[in-house]
Amino acid sequence: MTDASATAARRPGEQELTALGLGAPALDPADASPHAFPDGGRWRTEIPSCEGPEALAVVLDEAARLDVPVHRISQGSGVWMLTDAEITEMVDASTAHDVELCLFTGPRGTWDTGGSVRSDSRGAGLRARGHDAVAGCVEDAVRATELGVRCLLVADEGVLWTLHRARTTGLIAADTTLKVSALIGPVNPASYAVFERLGADSVNVPSDLTLDHLTEIRRVSGAPMDMYIEAPDDLGGYVRMYEVAELIRRGAPLYLKFGLSKAPGIYPYGHHLRELTLATARERVRRGRLALDLLARHGAAGDMAPLGSRLPGPLHRFPTGA
Q1: Is the pLDDT of residue 121 over 60?
Q2: What are the φ and ψ backbone dihedral angles of 204, each rounded to 5 degrees?
Q3: Which of 231, 246, 255, 267 lies at a CB distance of 3.0 to 4.6 Å from 235, suitable for a disulfide?
């Protein structure tokens, strides 16, 4: 159960427009999500595209300077683009700041030799092509979890199901959480529910879903949702800061992801992209500050989950037996 203040309608400029006779129709309280994180919080934060220890240090320093609470940071280039020493350094820094570290798993179709992803239809996109690509993702997962990583980013339904089975059988740590990439994110409630049942602990939906779409999803699934409040250009470049309070009301439990439009791509990261990566990491945190300021002005900042919280709560799964 969530209290009335957590699900109250809040919209920017509402009082002023009403005074001018331009008030919007009342929102339906039934549109509010009935779900929350296990601790009762309705939103958490995530800083994406944190591509190594140096970028992580920049994010943590800037977050402290701007007073931006960070629940999770995620990396997009992949486990295989980091040395053991770099992963260990990121694990240690994240642990010291009580922030969840999420690393991307394995080979992906967009970097593979297959031509379909370069066709007009984009083929299978990021999905793992063939047995060896799945095996590479599993290898990444085993290596990362052995080094202390407890959140893995996946971009393939088969990889998701395989890693879910791996944690239920003890091949990787049982408390590992699995996060679905925005690049295969579901766009309807039926597919969202399937991702939950395949093992997803949070699901990144595309940033162009409407508020009604979020309500539809929340009527069938309480699995945590991730959404770019500002999306990178290759995901549409949408900027939805003024909708943050309503996105939470409709989509909770929700990770607010602070991406960056009008910025060049940095995957796969290397030191040739160092200055760009550090500058954009710093700006993502600033974008987070702007969104949080809006939340405070709209009276919606009080529903944040406690810092350090990371688990999704009970979720529905397909049976893992043969």
Answers
A1: no
A2: -85, 110
A3: 231
